[in-house]
Every structure is written in structure tokens, then in C-alpha cells.
């Protein structure tokens, strides 16, 4: 049996938990920032209190981060393997902190979009390095628990972000949601310098610059096309098909080049292991479904339910609690049921909670919503840890950064695809329902332009209804949104069930009781 980072394992017991605390702090920072922005978009659009950003500019404030993050993750994994995860952590934290400070004082939306892109680059350095540090520095017998804690940090960051953002916006200016990252970055940097060892693989990888360039441009093109697809415009336009086709071609060239490269950025031999391949597919589907669900769930809570961003974030803490508890329970369940059935049970539980939204309306009790969010989080907690452990169990020490990058790319691309899918369904069904709704157009009601906005966006319709005192418009928007949510949640549940099937069928050859230290077995 080959142990990952065996030379470090003998020295790790006295310092593995401080190291874990530091990397989990850095990992949580990524997800905290991703979710905290959702609270600030309304303020950023305000010309008096924010930047007066247009809807298109707001889309790019969010998308620039995801685009660069997903596109640069393979590069981040390769750099972690080449220079060591500790050095990559320091570089990623420094870049993330500097970009956050620049974004906090942005004079216009364009500046903020660029700052968000650099934050995405910093996150691309951070995420593979955090998992690589855990795999290399934690003793084999403690690695499952360490990965469980690492996985649960993402849920905590996602759920706490909206609450923190709401509190900051209630007391400070819009830039505070970005400036808040700086002290966390400083704390993480101090921790990395103090306790994280200078881990190295058995050999220093040669950087595959052509491969890295193709992967960044290819993933960037695909993600750009998916983002454009989620904007509610026609799917067959050149703004969607061209970047998708170009990105796909570049990724095909990347894969072909990796087969021949003596020092590949992505070692394709990883995918010869059914556990790694099937685990990647399950992660992709699980995060597609989760991200899509959280997208329309946030609109549901702040729309038909009328909650403030901070109140909605408080309700969604139930999901964070579920993820933390599920992640902690997953090692024991994997020993009892096997990793395969633990993962399958978790995906099936999330599919059931997504289907539950088919019965929601504007009066569904909040405790019921919170309970489903808790079950959903618990299910995702059961999935993330054993899938990650199964995937990383077969990765050789010198490629832990690359393996971690695949794990991270899968989550990010899955999340982007999920939001695009949910956003496209919501937009299409909402417009269809509102097209047949009679709106008060005229001198005493809406202009043609404002009526068109109301038929495109439920948020615009509610805002107009409040300013013009037209409660019937708000009621029509809520009804149309609920119909759109039912369509989105149906396909989200179907997608999650497909993930259940993949887990049952694809992971049967890795039906292990404990995953991270079982190399060479099964």
C-alpha cells in the first residue's frame, strides 16, 4: 500500500490539527466570498448607495470570478505540485486579499469586475493547495476525518455568507463585503507561515505551459458560454455557441496534448481508475443540482416569502448545519455501509429535498423550509467527504495538486452549470407565464418599457409594484415565479436522481469501508 506523503506522516501527528485549522480557514474564505456577494447586488445597483451598476454589469461582477476561478484551477494544481502547496497558499492568499481590497474601493463597476477576476485567480491557487496540504500532511488514519472537516467548511461558508453580508450592509458601505476578506486573509497568512510545513512531492514537476494555457482558455470558453446561456437569451446565438465550440476544441486539444506530454498538467491515468472517474461525475452532478437549487431557493425566500437577505441567510444556516453534521457522520457511515452506499444515500436525500419544493407556495411554514434545507445539507455532507476520499486515494504523491484540481474544477464547473440551468429555466418559464398576464399599461400604470421589465424579472415587477402601488402586479409576479420554480426544481430533482444512479453503478468497484488509505485494495 502506498501512503500519500509518507515522509510527512511520521511528523504530522503533533501539528496536523493546527495545519488543518489553517487550510480550512483558507478554504472557507473562498465559499464565504462566493455567497456573500449575493446580498450586495441590490446595493451595487443603487446609484446613491452603490455603483449604479446595470444588470449586465452585475452579471459580470459575479461571473468574472467564476470564469477565472474555473479556468485557472488546473494551473493552480500544477503550481501546487511544482512549488509546493505552502508556497501556492501564500501566493493565493496574498492575491485574494489584495484584489479584495481593490474591489472594496472600486470607483466604478468595471474596476470591480477586474478585481473580482483577480479574486478568482487567487481562489484558483488556494483551493487545490488546501486539499493537497491535507492529503500530504495528515496521517493516513486521520485523513478521512480531516477531509470531512475540509468538506464541511464549504457549507459553512456558503450559508454564513449571506448573514454576514446582510449585517455588514446594515452598518457600513457596500465595499465592506469585500474589505471584510482582508483581515481573514491576514489571519490565514500568519497561520500558514507559522504551522504549515513546506511540503514537497517526491519530484519537482516541470510546468506544462502549453497545456496550462489550453486548459485555462478552454475551460474559460466553456464557462463563458454557460454563463451566457444562463442570461436568458437565445441558446443558439453566436454569443453562446462560439465560446462553447471554441472552448470545447481547446479542451480537446488539451486532452490530446496531455496524452503525449512528458510532464502533463492533468495526468489522464487518473481517470483509468473507475473510482476517480465515477466520483468526478457524481461530484459534478451533485454540485450542479445544489447550486441550481440554492439559486432559486434564495429568490423564493426573498421573493414570495418577502424575507430580507439577512433573514433568508439565517434560514439557510440550516443547510450549513446539515453539511457540517453530514460531513462528520460520513466516515462512520462509510465504515458501516461502505463509501458507495453512503454517497448514494446522500445524493438520494438531496434529490428528495429538491422534489419537496414542488409543494411549496407563498405560505409554506419556514420551519418546513429549514427542515428540508437541513436534510439537503446533511445529504451533501454525506457525499462530499467519501467522494473526495475515494478520488484522492489513488492519486500518487507527486500529483496530489493535480488530483485536487480535478476535484475542485468539478465542483466549480458543476456549480456554474447548475446556476445556468436553473437560471435559464426560471427565466423562460417566468416570461411564458407573464406573457399572458394583463398588466396596467398606460398613463395611470406602466409604460411599455417598464411592463417589458416586469415580464422579464420578478424582482423588477415587485419593485415596480411597490413604487406604483400595484399589489396585483406583485401577486402576478409571485405566481409566475412559483411556476418557474416548480419547473426548475423538477429538473433539479431529476438531475440529482441521475447522480444517485451513477453512484450506485459507477462506484461499485470501489465499495470500500474506509477510503483514503486503501490503495491497491479492491
Helix and strand arrangement:
Layout: H1 6-9, H2 16-45, H3 55-83, H4 85-104, H5 109-137, H6 143-171, H7 176-179, H8 181-195, H9 209-229, H10 238-260, H11 274-302, H12 309-337, H13 339-356, H14 366-393, H15 400-435, H16 448-456, H17 458-468, H18 471-506
Helix pairs in contact: 2-5, 2-6, 2-8, 3-4, 3-5, 3-9, 3-15, 4-5, 4-8, 5-6, 5-15, 6-12, 6-14, 9-10, 9-15, 11-13, 11-14, 11-15, 11-18, 12-13, 12-14, 13-14, 13-18, 15-18, 16-17, 17-18
What does this structure look like?
The protein has 522 residues and is mostly helical. Helix content is 77%, strand content 0%. Helix 11 packs antiparallel against helix 14. The protein is globular and about 65 Å long. The protein starts with 5 loop residues before the first helix and ends in a 16-residue tail after the last helix. The model is unreliable at 1-14 and 510-522 (pLDDT under 50).
Characterize the overall form: globular
> For the CA atoms, what is the radius of gyration?
23 Å
Helix content: over 70%
Major beta-sheet overview: none
User: What's the overall average pLDDT, rounded?
Assistant: 75
String of helices and strands: HHHHHHHHHHHHHHHHHH
Q: How much strand?
A: under 5%
